[in-house]
Design brief:
The chain contains three helices and four strands; from the N terminus they run αββββαα. With 144 residues, it is an alpha+beta fold. About 20% of the residues have low confidence.
Length: 144
Amino acid sequence: MRRALPVLVLSVAALIPVWRYTPSIATSAQAPPSPTEGPAPSAPSSDTSVPPSSSPGTRVIAGATIPTEKGDVQVEVTLTAGRITAVKALKAPAHPQTTAALPKLIEATLEAQSADIDAVTGATITSDGYRDSLQAALDQRTGT
C-alpha cells in the first residue's frame, strides 16, 4: 500500500500533458479559395519599402516553392541597388508557429542581407523552407 499512492500520483501527473495536448492545427485559418473564386484578399501590408515601379534599379524575385512537412513555403524578395529592401511570404503553412515566425525571419533577413539566418525556435521546418526559398531567389539575382 505504501507504493500504491506514489505510483498513482505519478501516473496521473504523467498523463496530465497528454490530456492537455492541443493539436497544432490552426482553427482560424482560412480555407483556400475554390477554383471559381478569385484569390483571397490579402491582409493590409505593413511594408514600408518603396514600390518596385517607382524606384529605378529595383528587382522583385520570387524564390522557389519549397515543400515542407507543414506545407509549401515561398518568398518574394525585393532588391534595390543590390540590397534586400523587402521580403514577402507568398506561400506559408497556416500554422500558429509559422505566423509568429515569419516577421522574425523577415527582420533577420533584412538585417543580415542574406539567407544566412538562424531558424526561429518552434518553427524550424518553416524556417528551413524560408531560407531555402530565399536562397533560391538570391541565387537568381547573382545567376549562381
